Fold this protein.
Amino acid sequence: MIVVENLGRHFDSVKAVDGISFRVDKGEVLGFLGPNGAGKSTTMKMLTSFLTPSFGKASVSGFDVVEQSRESRATIGYLPENAPLYSDMTAREFLQFIGEMRGISNVKNAMDRVISLTGISPVVDRKIETLSKGFKRRVGLCQALIHDPQVLILDEPTDGLDPNQKFEVRTLINAMAKEKCIVLSTHILEEVDACCTRVVVISAGKIVVDSNPVALRGKNKSLDEVFRELTTSVY
């Protein structure tokens, strides 16, 4: 459902993403790992048509992210690292707005579904500016899920959540995994073990490994050790 071919994005002399290729199919949860500045968020922004690639191609659900960006974006639920929220709206008002912008025929049913899924019922009628970082993150997750997309692209989905909330979000990701194509960026390696069927590690704009967590970890090393070795060896 996601196909990336020699994709790159340069900012003047900075090679943020430098010719990467991979694909993700329905039923896969791809953990996208790398140190700060490795190119994770830039890749996600290209897949969601927020950034135009400098070269290469990418398609989502069969639609080219540049030539058919409107069609590709309609199939994506995107949670960026710093999800923009309208702080003067209540969470309910914000989700109503997002549902209408998405052209959902029964917005109330869609809202009820994602409010229940993400557990924001206690705060749904409070202004977003008054919410904790964790609840703001969950409101952001709601807007990514409200149109029941085929593809989910989640940049640090559990950032700011407490341990119980992290567990709930990971459980939700696992529950959705069979029916969707999911890419999640994370720096929390236990999240990879908990959610991911596959791991791509990117460092200095290039993919350094594409494997599954069990094979990547091996018999005698922790995932932390492997990750540290892979990313530091590039620099």
Observations:
- The CA atoms of residues 34 and 202 lie 5 Å apart.
- Residues 1-75+149-222 form a domain with the Rossmann fold fold (CATH 3.40.50.300).
- The two ends are 32 Å apart (CA to CA).
- The beta strands are 2-11, 14-24, 29-33, 55-60, 63-64, 76-79, 151-155, 181-185, 198-203, 206-211.
